[in-house]
């Protein structure tokens, strides 16, 4: 199973002279208070859960902010991510970037190789495009199964979910039951996209260069495209579907739920 796929997506017109920071970063009213609240939430999570706490990072912009906060405030929080075998090379490059910049170890969980080989042999490399059921099955073996191993033995996990990301996430709380007896801590729930990029700009946080190519939400390479002006934040995910634009990682109180 290949550990990386080179991005085949090209910048939209004008992308070469733009960056996500220049497009989105701005300090909005109440940012300092939201930042302070997030730090307090992280400190409280450490105090309550100790070694049972984990940041599950998708390596997206929000999760990079959280990782920076963990490092900046010297919080003893383990960090882990999923390598689905279908991620962009630009996404995977953030793992050594985090380790070099912050001196933090990122544990990587991968799907069971035999299960992936069987799925591809049976359904083909492009199975996700042929039906919603096949796409969800692909997400299940590449994301949900390794996530279950990532979270085994943990009492709480930190995500980068925000209420602004989609209508499905509009009611995201700071703290919720993940349906598996763990606490799921959405410490950026009240942050805006402008807040995320203001923080990244202010503290020089590493981020995926695909964000500069109009991809606010980045998943597996075959299932991610750039969005056009005015499109929904998650419109570039599984764009060929009429669906809720979710993979099942955040189906709270139904299945285990990495910001994806």
Automatic annotation (TrEMBL):
It is found in: Cytoplasm. Gene3D superfamilies: HUPs. Pathway: Sulfur metabolism; hydrogen sulfide biosynthesis; sulfite from sulfate. It catalyses: [thioredoxin]-disulfide + sulfite + AMP + 2 H(+) = adenosine 5'-phosphosulfate + [thioredoxin]-dithiol. One of its GO terms (molecular function) is phosphoadenylyl-sulfate reductase (thioredoxin) activity. Keywords: Cytoplasm, Iron, Iron-sulfur, Metal-binding, Oxidoreductase. [4Fe-4S] cluster binds at residues 138-139, 220, 223. Residues 54-226 form the Phosphoadenosine phosphosulphate reductase domain. The keyword Iron applies. The keyword Phosphoprotein does not apply. It is an enzyme of class 1 (oxidoreductase). Binds 1 [4Fe-4S] cluster per subunit. Its EC number is 1.8.4.10. Belongs to the PAPS reductase family. CysH subfamily. Catalyzes the formation of sulfite from adenosine 5'-phosphosulfate (APS) using thioredoxin as an electron donor. This is Adenosine 5'-phosphosulfate reductase. The lineage of its organism: Bacteria, Pseudomonadati, Pseudomonadota, Betaproteobacteria, Burkholderiales.
């Amino acid at each position: 199973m290949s550990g990386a796929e080179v991005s085949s997506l090209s910048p939209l017109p004008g992308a070469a002279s733009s960056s996500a920071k220049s497009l989105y970063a701005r300090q909005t009213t109440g940012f300092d208070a939201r930042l302070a609240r997030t730090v307090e939430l992280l400190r409280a999570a450490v105090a309550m859960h100790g070694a049972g706490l984990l940041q599950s990072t998708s390596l997206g912009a929000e999760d990079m902010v959280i990782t920076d906060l963990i490092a900046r405030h010297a919080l003893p929080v383990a960090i882990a991510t999923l390598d689905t075998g279908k991620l962009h090379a630009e996404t995977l490059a953030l793992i050594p970037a985090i380790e070099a910049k912050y001196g933090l170890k990122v544990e990587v969980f991968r799907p069971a190789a035999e299960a992936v080989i069987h799925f591809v042999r049976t359904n083909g490399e492009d199975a996700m495009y042929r039906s919603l059921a096949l796409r969800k099955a692909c997400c299940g073996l590449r994301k949900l199964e390794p996530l279950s191993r990532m979270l085994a033995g943990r009492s709480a996990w930190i995500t980068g979910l925000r209420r602004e990301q989609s209508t499905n996430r509009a009611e995201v709380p700071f703290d919720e039951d993940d349906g598996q007896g763990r606490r799921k801590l959405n410490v950026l729930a009240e942050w805006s996209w402008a807040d995320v990029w203001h923080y990244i700009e202010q503290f020089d946080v590493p981020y995926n260069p695909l964000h500069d190519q109009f991809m606010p939400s980045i998943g597996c390479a075959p299932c991610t495209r750039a969005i056009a002006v005015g499109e929904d934040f998650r419109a570039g995910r599984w764009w060929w579907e009429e669906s809720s634009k979710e993979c099942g990682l955040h189906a709270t109180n139904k299945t285990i739920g990495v910001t994806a």
